[in-house]
Amino acid sequence: MNRDEYLWGLWKTTIYDDLTWKTRNPSRVRRPSQYQAPSWSWAALNGEIVWLLPWGSKFQHVALRLECEPTLSGSDPSGGVSYGFILIRGILKGLGDIELREHNDDGLETIVLQKKSAEGENRKIGCIYPDTADFLSEGPVGCGNTLESGLNLFVLPIRREHTGNHYMGLVLRYNYVNRCSYRRVGVFTWDDGSSCFDSCAEQIVKIE
Q1: Which of 26, 110, 163, 171 could make an SS bond with 130 (beta carbons 3.0 to 4.6 A apart)?
Q2: On the CB side of 163, how many CA atoms lie within 13 Å of its CA?
């Protein structure tokens, strides 16, 4: 008998890997005005979904799911959901000191993460795969959400390669409506996060 729990299109037993979905063509996807599901679920959007694949079998999860709670829109448990969140214990790093640049290679829409080296040259350190075309315009006006800065964006690693320091996880935006939470806006890969993430303390992150 299957005792797994279905969480807005994701499964509880595989939640870590299920969270790393991405939209195939983000420029064609916009966030619906009507609530469909929490931002961390692919059911929140209308578009074709694929998953970021891990590096073979040599990887480990670096985040821990603590709680996932739905709020039903009615008394019927099988009915619609009006609200839902997930609590994850992990490393949350702000991107305020990271430069963002749009990139399109063979139809793959990404945003390149860059940081200045000690010599003053821009060095690619990873990529963001946006969920929607509204990636940089979803935040409130005046918050510095431009392609020059990662201000008000955060990354939460989910997986780390065993044989290296490559990370993969969620891109989050601070929720200015409910200031105790975040909303998912994409996924990321980080080429060498040892010097960036090792110095970050774990915390409990609420994603709506």
Answers
A1: 26
A2: 5
- Least Cα distance to 205 among 69, 86, 84, 38 occurs for 86
Q: What is the dihedral of CA 102, 105, 108, 113, to 10 degrees?
A: -40
How many Å apart are CA 119 and CA 65, to the nearest integer? 40
As beta bridge partners, residue 110 has 103
Write the pLDDT tens digit of every residue in 122-152. 788 889 999 998 776 665 433 444 445 566 8
Residues 3 and 13: beta-carbon distance below 8 Å: no
β-bridge mates for residue 114, sequence order: 99, 124
Q: Which residues pair with 207 in a beta bridge?
A: 86, 182
Neighbour-count burial of 36, counting CB atoms closer than 10 A to its CB (0-12 exposed, 13-18 middle, 19+ buried): middle
- Three-state DSSP class for 118? coil
pTM > 0.70: yes
Of 193, 173, 168, whose CA–CA distance to 185 is shortest? 173
The C-alpha atoms of residue 173 and residue 40 are separated, in whole angstroms, by 12
Contact criterion met (CB below 8 Å) for 172 and 135: no
Structure-block tokens of residue 142: 């005046």
Closest-CA residue to 167 (of 92, 73, 71): 92
15: Cβ–Cβ under 8 A, 6 or more apart, which residues? Answer: 7, 65, 68
